[in-house]
Design a protein that fits this description.
Lysozyme-like; Muramoyl-pentapeptide Carboxypeptidase, domain 2; 324 residues; alpha/beta; six-stranded mixed sheet
Length: 324
């Protein structure tokens, strides 16, 4: 397969770091958006403090039909990982990896038997099941993902093959591609996924077809990499603590208005899939609002999912449901 590289979506030099860097790795992402062009437009609008360009992007975008767009010279670089490592380690890692984004709606949420993209429940975000990939287990809080098109995977395999030949980049990847490795990959040379270095990310999707086609088309080989011995931050809740917290929250939900309590329970279940847990306050009998504290996880996920589920208001300490 001869790959036709399209250069109609190009970032200006002011929106990436031009110049030649030594490349020893390739990182695979997906966009969590619509088309490749939509993600490109988002990068053009993305700004850092003071209105300066954010310098965020990847060298390549692969559209749904398999079209490969070269956004900037792959020998250059832009921020693509969002790591919280030391500045020197983070910059060294960013500079030596070539980024590839697959156009995809990303992880999907479930509600009332339907699938929805962008963590938002509306007719416009509903996703047909025949366009979704079932991981058959939770992966980073999600079971369902937008399915990559065969043309996208074919283009990805050919592109990785060409980049490994051009730079050259070792034709290998961590043998457990759905694990989190963190800074154990700081010196790794080869092909990785974004989720391997970010525990809060789920791209690329946990679809074995992706890594199989990279073995077939780019001759990649799995190699053993030891995951980190521990993660930084507070210890995770034990299963017993989670069960106790859930039972306590159910008792407090039961005191609320029935419809309001059902929506709060749906929120808690969606958050649990993402490793986020709340401790609810005691509500007034029949209430449509309830206070809470974040016990573990992502506070932004609470506000985002509350909005998607249709809560009237959500703050850092309070949830309010519309009166039925």
């Amino acid at each position: 397969m001869v790959l036709d590289i399209v250069r109609t979506l190009r970032l200006p030099d002011s929106e990436f770091f031009a110049g030649t860097q030594r490349k020893t790795g390739i990182a695979i992402h997906h966009t969590v958006g619509g088309s490749a062009e939509a993600s490109f437009r988002l990068w053009r609008r993305d700004q850092a403090n003071g209105g300066r360009p954010a310098m965020v992007g990847t060298a390549y975008l692969i559209d749904h039909d398999g079209t490969v767009f070269e956004v900037f010279d792959p020998a250059a670089w832009a921020y693509q990982f969002g790591l919280r490592w030391t500045p020197s380690a983070r910059l060294a890692f960013e500079r030596r990896f070539i980024g590839i984004e697959i156009a995809s709606e990303g992880a999907l949420i479930t509600y009332d038997g339907q699938l929805y993209c962008f963590d938002r429940i509306s007719p416009r975000t509903r996703k047909p099941r025949d366009e979704a990939f079932d991981a058959e287990r939770l992966y980073r809080g999600y079971r369902w993902f937008d399915r990559y098109e065969p043309a996208q995977l074919a283009s990805l395999g050919t592109l990785v093959d060409e980049l490994c030949r051009r730079f050259p980049i070792p034709r290998r990847y961590p043998q457990r591609p759905f694990d989190y490795y963190g800074d154990a990959l700081a010196s790794f040379e080869g092909v990785i996924g974004h989720a391997m270095v970010r525990p809060d990310k789920s791209d690329p999707a946990p679809d074995p077809r992706l890594w199989q086609i990279l073995e077939e088309r780019a001759a990649l080989q799995p190699v053993a990499v030891t995951p980190p011995a521990h993660r930084r931050g507070p210890p995770a809740l034990t299963s017993g603590q989670i069960e106790t917290l859930f039972a306590q929250n159910l008792r407090r939900i039961d005191a609320m208005a029935v419809a309001a309590g059902s929506l709060v329970k749906a929120l808690l279940m969606e958050l649990e899939r993402r490793g986020t847990y709340l401790r609810l306050d005691h509500p007034e009998p029949g209430a449509h609002a309830i206070g809470y504290e974040l016990v573990q996880g992502d506070r932004k996920a609470v506000l985002r999912l509350a909005g998607a589920l249709g809560f009237r208001a959500a703050t850092a300490s309070r949830l309010e449901v519309r009166h039925a």
